[in-house]
Amino acid sequence: MKSRDKKLIVGGVIIALIIAVLAPFLASSNPDGLESTAEKVMPNPETEPVIKSPLPDYTIPGLGKEGEVLSLVLGTIIVLIIAYGISVALKTGK
């Protein structure tokens, strides 16, 4: 991997983490378009999930805004690790 590519990847990871930290403070607490429409169309849009999420509603229960930031940072890191693993698997498969 070229040095320029590494710098681009590191820059992308830093930007993703900055967005994950700032998102809880910038996002609206009011329902967005999709959730608002679901409430209007369906009588009970919130149903019991088949599998309980470890980070429900993008937060860690009991931690407030810090829980939201931690949840988003953890989610971002997990997605980046999965994407990296898939890319390595595809690269070695050739």
TrEMBL record:
Keywords from the named record: Cell membrane, Membrane, Transmembrane, Transmembrane helix
Stated name of the protein: Cobalamin biosynthesis protein CbiN
Main location (coarse class): membrane
Gene Ontology CC: plasma membrane
Pfam families: PDGLE
Domain PDGLE residues, every copy: 6-91
Membrane-crossing residue ranges in chain numbering: 7-27, 69-90
Subcellular location: Cell membrane
Domain of life: Archaea
